Amino acid sequence: MTTREALLALFEKNRGFFISGEEIAQALGVSRTAVWKVVKKLQKEGYDIKAVTNRGYCLSPDTDVLSAEGIKEHLKERYSKRATIDVFRTVDSTNNVVRQKALEGAKSGYIAIATSQSQGRGRRGRTFYSPADTGVYVSFLLMPPEFDDAGVVKVTTISAVAVCKAIEKMTGKRPQIKWVNDIFIDGRKVCGILSEASYNLEDSAFEYAIVGIGLNLFPPKTGFPDAISGIAGSVLDKPGDISRNKLVAEILTNFTELYFSENPLEYVEEYRKRSFVIGKEIDIISGKSVSKATAIAINDDCSLQVRYPDGTEEALQSGEISIRVQH
C-alpha cells in the first residue's frame, strides 16, 4: 500500500475528525513532510481536507471523491480484504480494463471503476454515454469453475437486482427493470448492464466473465445527447445528495451476497417484482426482423416467456433479442 493509499484509508476511517500530523506520520511510518506533500496532492485531486495549526488534518464528511479506500470503508470486512479495486479518472471502457487485467492474470473479484469513459459500450455494439463526474462505471471479473450462457444471464440479472436494491436503500426510490439489463426510474433509463464472456477457442471452455455496470447518477450540465435525450435519465437531479463510494459498496455487497446465496432463486423473485414488461405488448427485434408478442412471465432462469399472436410461446434468452416496450 502506497503512502497515498494508506493516508486515504486513515482519513476515511476518521472522516470528520482531526488527526495531528505527528499521529499520521507515526501511523504510516513516514515523515511529517511526506504527509504534508501527500495531503497537498489529495487536495488538488478534489479532496476537501482541512489543515489547522495545532489540530492537524481533517477529511470533510461532505467529500465525495470516488476512491478504492472510500469504497472499502463501506464494505464488510470479509469483502474488503478480498477486493482488489482500481479507481480511474477516465478510461476507454472499464470492461476493457478488466479484460486486460484478466489477460495479465488478475483473479476473480478484480474491480475497475471510473468516473468517465471515452468508449463506453452497451449491448449489440451500441455506445454508452459516459461523461465525466455525472455517473459511475463499474466492471468486475468472475471466474467460476463452471460457467455457460445461462451463467451470463444469471450474473446480468443479479447485477440488475443489486443495483436496484442499492439505489432504493440510498435514495428511497424504487427502480424497475426492463428485461434483461436496463434499469429505469420514472420511465427513464438510469443504468445499463453489459456482461461478456470469454471462451478458449481450442476447446470452447469458459475462461472468465466480465460484468459492466453503467450508472447515471446526475444529469450532464449540457443535458443528454439528442439521440438518447428522450429515454436517458439519472438517479438524482443534482450532486451532493448521495455518497458515490457508499453506493458502489452497496452494489458490490448486494451482488456478492446474491451470487453466493444459499437460496439460488432469491434474486429471481426480486427480479420479477421489479420487472415492468410483464403483461406488456412488445416488439422482439432479431437482426432486421421484428416480431410482436406479449411478455407473460420471467422464468426461474430469468429468461422471458412470451406469447405470440398465434398462441405459441417461447422463452427468450439474453443475447438473442432486444425488446422495445410499446407505450
Fill in the keyword field for this structure:
single chain, 327 residues, alpha+beta, Arc Repressor Mutant, subunit A, BirA Bifunctional Protein, domain 2, SH3 type barrels, 3 domains
Top-tier CATH class of the largest domain:
Alpha Beta
- Mean pLDDT metric: 90
Indicate the CATH architecture of the largest domain. 2-Layer Sandwich
Question: Roughly how many Å is the radius of gyration?
Answer: 22 Å
Q: How many strand segments?
A: 14
Question: Do you know the CATH topology of the largest domain?
Answer: BirA Bifunctional Protein, domain 2
What's the tally of helices? Answer: 9
The low-confidence runs, each spanning 5 or more residues with pLDDT under 50, are: none
Major sheet summary line? 7 strands, mixed
SSE order: HHHEEHHEHEEHEEEEHHEEEEE
Our estimate of the beta-strand percent is 25-35%
CATH superfamily of the largest domain: Bira Bifunctional Protein, Domain 2
The helix content is: 25-40%
N-to-C terminal Cα separation, in Å? 52 Å
Instruction: Write down the domain tally.
Output: 3
- The general outline is elongated
Brief characterization of the structure:
This protein is an alpha+beta fold.
